[in-house]
Amino acid sequence: TMPFLSIRGVQLYYEDTGGPGEPIVFSHGLLWNSHLYSQQIEALRGRYRCIAYDHRGQGRSAAPPGKAIDLRTVYEDAVAFIQALGLAPCHFVGLSQGGFVGLRVAARHPELLRSLTLLDTCASSESLWNLSRYWLLTATTHWLGLRPVVDRLMSIYFGPTFMKDPARAAEREELRRQLLQNPRDVWRAMQGVITRRGVTEELSRITTPTLILVGEEDVVTRPETAETLHTRIQGSRLVRLPHVGHMSNLEQPELVNRAIHRFLSGLTPSRHEALALDTRVAVSAP
Length: 286
Fold this sequence. Notes:
- By secondary structure, this protein is of the alpha/beta class.
- 43% of the residues lie in helices and 16% in strands.
- It has a single domain, classed as 3-Layer(aba) Sandwich (Rossmann fold).
- It has twelve helices and eight strands.
- Strands 1-2-4-3-5-6-7-8 form an eight-stranded mixed beta sheet, sandwiched between helices.
């Protein structure tokens, strides 16, 4: 089945593995969709209920016609999505744009989250230099679609190690094809992401256990920005991945899966699990 959820006037597409495990919500990066996390979901679905959704105006999720889709709207969608499916408190995994969403949920709705995993993301707004470059990509996409800019995007998104590996040529071709499947209309999501406001001053409010992963070769959200997150989010854990660019979960899925698995396994049991443990202890006591 292809489930859609009606959220704030829009049909959001999502995939849900079901099962009794604690829920993990996966929030994708700009120009991708819920499929971005297929390798993480494959690795984690045995122990967790994995739910991946498409942001409005991306993937199979619709968007009302018109102007840019600002990040506040995408963040509010995530809150409504978690509430509508009754997933709170859930684990939240966000890459890049998905991480922008996760940071806002953690800072403003801590009750919804049990943990936060941030992949290649940051809390700041775009620098003027990036803004000018990204405006050009967005305008080109608006008028001509992604084809004229797809190779530029590939070189921004993926690290040189991945881009130059002859053994991964077929993989690169497939990912390029996936990017080209975005409709021209995706410029609205692009514009919303590049014009977002920063949330650095909100990071001190985050109390959710947080794992931060960043590729050493990431040129979109550089390792320094991950260091800032780590410094400002109390008790967070930072893992830098060598030879990895912005799309860390696609470039090194095993490393990323291992890091997420280790992080989630190390969390203190939820109240639900703790109660179950208590009753077992009580029963077995002499």
